[in-house]
Each structure stands twice: as C-alpha cells, then as structure tokens.
C-alpha cells in the first residue's frame, strides 16, 4: 500500500508539469500582454502613454524574452514559492491571493460536507422507498435544486437572509474584519456568513448526488449478496449500511476527484453575486485583463487541487474495495 | 400425518405478485412437509415457483408478494410447539431470530451471493455476531472451526480472504459454512450446485449429505436436476406451474412416477444407457420440415472424408499481475495447448471439459475470432481446402457461409431490437443473397424448418420463451446453408424438457441437411446423446478422444474417468460413488497415475493410439497395455 501511495505521488509530478505547460500556452495564446491591454485602456480614456516606461517594465518582468524562457522562469519561481507579480494589483501574487485562498478552501470543504450530510440519508431513503410519495417529493425538490441557477438562488437567499436574520448582504464576513488578522470575532462573523454560499453552491451538487446515489443503490439492492445477510437474520437497516451502501460508496469516492475543482471554479458566478472574498471572481478578472502571473497561478492551483482530489479518491477506493487493492489491474 | 412430527409444514400456501395487468399466481394451494433429519427435494423447472416457496419459508419474499396459507415451523429447540412464519411481522424481531439461526439458506450463485468487499471470516462470523453473545475471539475460533468442517484446506488463511480470491467450489463451501454455523434445524439449499462443474457438484453434494447427517438437520433441496435428487433426497415434491404435482418418498417417486408431467420429465433427461438411435421424448416435440430450405442436400455420403482438420493449435493469454509498484509480472496461461483433431463430414464431434479448460477458445479459433499462436486449421469444402487462419477475400467470405455458430445464451445472443425476420435475413443481406422477396421466402422456410409459427415473423425476441429463442438462433445459423455448425453449450441455459426438444431438433436437422457438428458441452450425458466421437479437454489439452461408446464404456484417462464418475444419474440403482471423488477436483494431476503426468517435463506427453480411433494423452514411454485400467 505504501509503495502504491509513493508511486501515485510520483506520477503527479509529470502530470503537473504537463498542466503547467498547457496553462502557459493558453495564457500566451491571445495576442498582446498585460502592458498592451493596459496601454490600450489608457488610450481609450484619452490619456497619454509613456511608452518608455512600458518598455522598461516589460524588460523588468522578462516580457522581452522568448516564451520558452519565460515559461521556465515562471516554473522555477513557482517552485521557490514566488508566484510572480500581479500587475493589476501592483502586488506579488501570493499577497493578492493570500486570505482568499484559504477562505475558498474553507467554503469548498464545508460545501462538500454539507452535500454529503444531506445527500446520503435522502439518497438512501429514496432508494429503499422507491416510487413512494417520499421518494417523489424528494426527487421533485432535488430536480428544483438542479434546475434553479445558482446565482438566482443566491439573490433569493440573500434577500431573505437580510429580512429574517439581518445578516449583511454578501461577503464572507462583516466589512470591518476584511483586512484584519484572524480573531475570535472574525471567525464568528465568518461562521455567520458562510451558510448562505454553502447552501447555494451545494444545492445543485446535493441534488445530483441524491439522484446518483439512488440509482447506484437501486442497482445494488437487486443483487443477490443483499439477500444473503437478510437470510442470516441481520437487521434490514444494518444490512443496507454494511453491504449495498458500501458498494455504492465507490462512486462517491471517485467523485472526490472532480468535486474539488468543480466547487472552486464552478462557484465564480455565485461568488460575484454574493461578492465573496474567494478566488473565483479574482480569477475571472485576472483572465480578462491578461494579468498573466495571477491567472497562471490560479489555474495551477486548480490543477493541483484536481490532481490531489484524484489522488485522494484513488487511495480511498483502494482502501475501501479489496478488489482494487488485491487484483491490481490484472486483466484477462 | 401427525403435524407434531413435521419440522416444517406448508399448508394451503398461495403466493401472488401484483403486477400491471392483474396478479400473477406463482404458487397455488401448495401443501408440503419436511421431516426432521431428512432431505426433501423440491423439483421443478424455472418459473415453477420453487424458489418463491423457499423465500416464503424465510420470510424474505419481495414486498410486492401477497401470501396466504400457513407455514408452520416446529423447532425442536422451542417447546412451545409450531409457530406460523407467515404471521410474523415482516423483518421483525421474531423472524430475524429464526433466519440464519434456526433456518439456514444456501443460494445458487456462489459468485454473487457473497459480498465482494468483506472477508470470508467477516461474512461467516457475522451470523454468530447476530445470534449469539460470543466475544470476538470466540466467534473467530468457531468460524475457523466451521471453515475447516466444510473442507477449507487452510481455514486460518481463508478467514482473511475475499470471495473473489476463491474458486467457485470454495465459495459455495463458504456459503455452506455461513448457513450452518449456528446449527440450524433446517437448511434450505436453492440449486446449490447448478452453477458448478460436475466434479465440484459431486463434492458439494457429498459435503451437504455428510453435514446433514452429522448435524442431524433437515434439508429442503431445491433443484431441477433429477440426477441430484436421486442421489441426495429422501423425499421428493414435484412442482409444476405453482402447483404440487406429486409428493412422496424418493423410492416411490422414482420407481413408480404417477403424474404424466413427472414421467415426461424423466423421459426427457438424456442418460448413459440409451440404446443407439434411441430418442429423447421431449414434452413438446417440434416437427422438422426442411422441404423448402435453401441449401438442402442429400444426406451425407459415407462419413469418411475429413471436413475440418485442426493441427497443433495453441493459444496463450497473458495476464498482467501488477504489483503495487508498477512491477508487472507477465503470467502466460495456456488456454489451448497443442490441440489437434479432425471432424469428418456428417459426424458430430463432442467436446467436453470443465469450465476454463479451453473448449470455448477452441471454438473461437475455428471461427477466426481468436488468432492462435501456432498450428493450422484446414477446411475441406466443396471447392477444395481453405486454410482458415490465413484465408482472405473471397475464400474468407465463402468460409463465413460454411461455418456457423449456435450460442449458449439464447437471451443475449439475439438483438432485442430486431424482429425475427430481421434476425434471420441479416446473414442473407450481408452475403448479398437474392432480393427482398427471395429473402422473405428463405426466412419463411427457415421458420418452418425449426417448427415456429409463420405468424411469429414480425415479433421481437423478448416475446419468445428460452427454447423458442434458441430455435431462432439455430435458424439464423442455418440461413446461409452451412456445412459445419459449432454449437457452444446450446442447451445449458435451458430447462430439461426444453433441452430434449432442442437436442432432438439438432439431431433431425443434422440428418435432413447432412450437417456436421462440433458440439461443445460440459454435460457428458448431453454429449453422449448427440456425438459420434467425443474429445475430452483438460487444462487446454485434449486428454482423450474416442468414439462415443468406447469413451463411455472404457475410458482410459483418469480425468475422463473422474468426470464420468461424478455425473449424478436420475436412477436410484446407480448412486454416485462419493468415495472415488478427489477433494481437489478432477483436474488435479497429482491424483493421476504417472503415465498421464508430465511431471515438469513439457514434452513428456504425446497422443497415444490405442486402436479403433481411441487416442489418449500419455507419456511417450508408456506401454499401451499398461494404460488400460
């Protein structure tokens, strides 16, 4: 098992290298760079542009070198923890991202937990009570959850949260804590705010997961090995949890791989509507203004999470399912 | 009948399922009893309601089932007298105390009845965890003891193994351990050996009998195999379409079958004592009419010339066993190892062997679906010999019309999206035979040939029974007028009565059309009925090949002999000789005498001719006279 983990981690390195190259190419693809779009913007506003200063800046950030050299400089910088400089914010990327990064991780993590806590019992109930009123009702709710766009749900919830609880609209914390260091009051403020984005971002995922769990579980419930423990006299609920549920877990585990990046990148629109201090809105802005180091670091971060997610789900699957662990890719 | 003496009494049991279009009555007014310490066999074909009865006894019927009547369980350890299982609340405390503890159950499919995610020890020990107060260590000891009792060679190791690491026979042993660990008063065995090879089946039957008498429990054995019944049962109950036809002691039932259904069932089973030319009596015979069939020709000339000649074919499959660190050990499995045989024009060559012996791979090589590593296959058609393995273009197209296949599973071998007409005319379209009108004519005469009604031409496969679908499969194989039919287990998925019908149909077609068959089966009795010569395969090699009678009467190779010894006869006077069975199965070479073993020397064995077309695989040095037992 240990050798497998080491091997899986070793495989991640070339994967990440390949992704970084792809990200760099994609960012380079549009004509021009940050300085050109900056100059164009200035001209559009009728201001003069100091071309000499721009050229100096270009040289300072190695933009006059060929792309291959810049790629390696970028890569080398990242390995040393230097993610480059955000032109838009006039700050190093790590300072710009800073707080947002761990807030994003927090929101994502809570959302995943929320999704599972809601989806598991409902999916189990739906599968064991197939075609009952409860099943239909929960299915209906789930479909509504899938159908309503997240930003709309965000607007609705924001309105009611304000009316009923008096929470300030938007954000992950009250304004005064924004640039303050972590404190007890700040944590409380975050907890007060976090449930709205969690519900909003989690709804669609929860609904989808309920449907998938129901379908998976229904498949498993038909199988013979579910009858065997019943014939042993095991309590029906214990049977459900120990046997078919465990089988149906496999898809949950393989889901982790895609759930991490999906929640982080898929929540941008919601984050903008709610003006959350997460990374989503920043990424979009960085891409629009060709702020390449910021955008590149973001994309790398997403890629890293994806790779980590897949790793976690692979390891969890191997732990959970002895067929994967012991048969290890043997084919006929 | 004194109700106090019966362990289980089923009175006036009716089970129906509510489905769209009115209820389906699976069991109608059934009465039966199970005596303590005796084996009661419940015999019937698929869909007769026998499994539903067993589910009702354990209270594990599907939710949609409606039940009436009484199932009285008189537990000897419960002094309060009989209790009615049907009165217990569904999945309630009472019924759960009975399940697994007082009534154990073994299911048909050992592959799917065990959870693949839990160890054998966990699943077997779970029964004790539910029904007793034992500590974890005690449970483990008892479980290991039980695994040893059901014949695990190393029970300690087996405790921590997963079901997929075990063979089918061992999995079924684990199931038995699970059902018996609480020493139940009644064991329900639902087709416990149907999915197993014949030699494994004999071992499991022996084990069940031994344990049944050792633990002095009653057993309800559900089966469709009269051979199994004759060898194991004390009492027999025959069920047909949900109604009990006949019940009584096994002696009375087998010596003097009263009900016409039972008589018909017995006449439909092929057995080894059939006279040459004797016909099975199918419950519903199919008339064969090949008058208008394309490709009809005179019955075969003297069966002398060779139609298909197979020389030295071998095929290895490599399995990649990857370690945890990308360490790939390539293990080559020889599925087919230096196999040679000839099929003569107009004969039926039987190919017998247990699962995994390579017989299906041979058939695939003949169809050119698998390319062998070595060897040659020559087809001697009307237009001269064709090398099957290298044929291209026109020769290959000719070949495709001359060799056709009949598959095992009639359900999955017919596309559910095509009508019978589409299915039967597709081969004609592929080979550009005739126009739409003449194709329709051909389809009609094909239907006539297999005895299906002309009106079924526009129906879809799902509206036919298993036997009818298999007939459609045969008709499809006949559409192009082939010379050679490869029948790969064509009746193993069918009920006994339907099996006789299909076998007779194949025999009649062979006679009328002068066809040549390669008949692949694991069922020796079926092959005995069909074949002129029989080849026995073991571990990818043909170990013995002889004319039918020689092989059946005077088998030489130990593998053939143990195969024959393991077949249960539906005849009380010929019980299985359980003592001759080897614990490790028939293909365990260490039990063979030294003339038949290679003992590490790969080149030691060669086909030895015993005369009269009887060839056996033995050491080169062995004397022919020594080989005969």
Explain how this protein is built:
The complex is a heterodimer of chains A (332) and B (629). Chain A is mainly alpha-helical. Chain A is built from 15 helices and two strands. Chain A has two domains: 91 residues, no CATH class; 212 residues, MetI-like fold. Chain A is globular. The C terminus of chain A is likely disordered. In chain B, the strands form four sheets. Chain B has an eight-stranded mixed β-sheet, with helices on both faces. A six-stranded mixed β-sheet of chain B has the order 6-7-8-3-9-10, sandwiched between helices. Chain B folds into two domains: 261 residues, 3-Layer(aba) Sandwich (Rossmann fold), CATH 3.40.50; 244 residues, 3-Layer(aba) Sandwich (Rossmann fold), CATH 3.40.50.300. The two termini of chain B are 51 Å apart. About 1% of the residues of chain B have low confidence. The chains are: A mainly alpha (332), B alpha/beta (629). At the A-B interface, α1, α9 and α15 of A face α2, α4, α7 and β11 of B.
